[in-house]
Write a structure and sequence with these properties.
single chain; 520 residues; 31% helix; binds zinc ion
Length: 520
């Protein structure tokens, strides 16, 4: 038995904190309150908060957990469960491994895709012994890549039947719901009817529909309305992913209004938001699909050709919203170190070029490994964050992969990985005082756990699974910054995952207790 003694208990329900102990027997919580002295391993929680392990409802760690199962960036923030398969990205089902890579975050040839089904992936992941618990939605991007491929058109009747079959099979093997990423190339051809039809096939089992909506700048609120229509037609529970759009607080308010009205009309809908003020993508996202579809050598020819450039120029991409290239900032990269951490407008001015010509030239210099030329897109404001995170229907999520500052993921950047929960608590509780500690813990535990239908996690009560985080409410904060992101958060002292002591006095123990959770 383990007893966490003398802490302030925030049990996840949002109710008032109280002084007490938490006893753990095996992988379950045995008692919460005053625990008499016992023959047990004692963890001193004097002056610390004791809370349920945090739940990352919007994770992209599907694949990086295979690369480095320690999930160090997450454990150091008290995270004990990652919900993956979001935004239509994920690791199954796989028909063609080369194609499937296009909808997997952080893919590297070092860990080959040696599975095809949800069940195969879950087994492979459990074998990797993750430090955190993991459950997955079925990603629509992979359903489409496995049937329609990269063609930008609706699925035909046979393809839709095949997609439904793959979806049902994935759910039967233990996936928890269904997600779309309709803004991405592999799903852009999916019609509202196609998505509703798949969503209905999923919803019969009561699962969650999580959607990265079709448009996240102009037309963002209309896209939220589309997701409401889909969920209603399919009778599905709806989670609007990272709801705040990239085009300002008014569109954000309209989007929240649509969610509230749908909720008022009886739809079970909530939303989430990541914690960073920018998006992260590749500079090559500025290129139109007809260029991206070509082999690298042909892409070089096109980028060198002034006539081809004129054809590319009108393409509206995730980078071009508002035509304000000051919002696009180049990250550290091996090709153009002199331009790292500077915005495209400044770089273009220095080169005496139009911004798009500068972008095309920078891409020509990065043809060897275009995925290593990344940019951030400044798109959100703190005012938007305050409104979203204070909303009762909103929970935070990382929208990132788990990382570690040493090992195979040391040089990978994914903003939010090290900072999401710690930033959320520091900003919303201590700095802005918009949430009480109990409310913030609820948004980090019981509320997201309930979205995926878990009632034995996200709460501290006898009988619940022993996912527990012990943290210093006065110190819990992020350290990672925009250009030095890979630094552990501070303030989390102990983390237990299924009763396994994973972080002790702020240091990883090397013990891994994570389970791949299968629905049903
Ligand atoms: Zn997304």
């Amino acid at each position: 038995m383990i007893v966490i003694r003398g802490g302030t208990i925030l049990d996840g329900t949002g109710g008032a904190p109280f002084a007490g102990d938490v006893a753990i027997e095996g992988d379950r919580i045995a008692a919460v309150g005053a625990v008499p002295p016992a023959d047990a391993i004692e963890i001193d929680a004097t002056g610390l908060n004791v809370a349920p392990g945090f739940v990352d409802l919007h994770s992209h760690s599907d694949y990086t957990l295979l690369v480095d199962p320690r999930a160090a960036s997450a454990i150091h923030q008290g995270v004990t469960l990652e919900v993956v398969g979001n935004c239509g990205f994920g690791c199954f089902p796989v028909r063609d491994a080369e194609l499937a890579r296009k909808a997997i975050y952080g893919y590297s040839p070092d860990v080959p895709i040696d599975w095809t089904t949800a069940g195969g992936y879950f087994e492979r992941l459990q074998k990797a012994r993750p430090a955190v618990n993991v459950l997955s939605l079925v990603p629509n991007g992979q359903l489409r890549l496995a049937t329609v491929g990269l063609a930008e058109r609706p699925a035909d009747a046979d393809e839709l039947t095949a997609m439904k079959e793959l979806l049902r099979e994935s759910l039967a093997e233990g996936a928890w719901g269904y997600s779309t990423g309709l803004e991405y190339a592999q799903e852009a051809g999916a019609t509202e009817d196609e998505v509703a039809s798949l969503c209905a096939a999923m919803a019969a089992g009561g699962g969650l529909y999580a959607t990265h909506t079709r448009r996240r700048d102009e037309g963002a609120a209309d896209s939220v309305a589309e997701s409401v229509r889909v969920a209603r037609a399919a009778q599905a529970r709806l989670q609007v992913s990272h709801l705040v759009p990239r085009n300002g607080i008014e569109e954000s308010r309209r989007s929240m209004q649509i969610v509230e009205e749908a909720r008022g009309d009886g739809l079970d809908v909530e939303f989430d938001m990541h914690t960073r003020l920018y998006g992260l993508t590749h500079l090559y996202a500025a290129l139109p699909p007809w260029v991206l579809a070509e082999e690298p050598s042909t892409q070089v020819e096109l980028l060198r050709d002034s006539t081809a450039r004129e054809r590319m120029r009108p393409h509206r991409s995730i980078l071009s919203a508002g035509d304000d290239w000051r919002r696009i900032v180049l990250l550290d990269n091996p090709f153009w170190p002199e331009y790292a951490r500077r915005d495209v407008a400044a770089v273009a001015a220095e080169r005496g070029q139009d911004p798009l010509d500068a972008v095309y030239d920078l891409l020509l210099g990065a043809v060897e490994a275009p995925e290593r030329l990344m940019v951030i897109i400044h798109a959100y404001t703190e005012d938007e964050q305050r409104e979203a995170f204070a909303h009762r229907l909103c929970v935070p999520g990382s929208d990132a992969t788990t990382l570690a500052p040493d090992g195979p993921l040391a040089d990978t950047w994914f903003h939010g990985a090290y900072t999401w929960a710690s930033w959320f608590y520091r900003f919303m509780v201590r700095d802005e005082k918009l949430l009480t500690p109990a409310q913030a813990v609820h948004k980090l535990s019981a509320q997201p756990a309930a979205r995926v239908g878990l009632s034995d996690r996200g709460v501290l009560r006898p009988g619940a699974r022993a996912d527990v985080t012990v943290f210093d409410g006065a110190r819990f904060a992020e350290r990672g910054t925009t250009f030095e992101p890979n630094q552990f958060a501070i303030g989390v002292r102990h983390v237990l995952v299924n009763g396994v002591h994973t972080l002790r006095d702020g240091v990883l123990t090397g013990e891994h207790g994570g389970q791949v959770l299968r629905a049903g």
